[in-house]
Amino acid sequence: MTEDDKKFMDRITAFAGEVMADIDPDPTITPISEQLNYLRPVMEEISSETGQSVEDIFIRYMDLASTVAAEKQKEFEDDFVDFADPTRQNFKF
Q1: Which of 6, 29, 43, 49 sits at a 20 to 30 Å CA gap from 58?
Q2: Taking residues 56-72, what's their average pLDDT?
């Protein structure tokens, strides 16, 4: 992820933290489409600043969010590999 991508994500994440503080992020409680509607104002703001369409901002956000989620999942799996892989469990009592 580039520095520009990080700033982009940080800006949207900060906005989300403000406007969605009381929203349950579970998609079965608050559908993704509803969550994205909360983010629309910041995406429109970025769109007007960059000259890109709101759709392009949305696509960039979703691509980067997927990348971040995959990285976090990989970090989690790496942290808990000993629990997930029984061949690597070397507990000594």
Answers
A1: 29
A2: 94
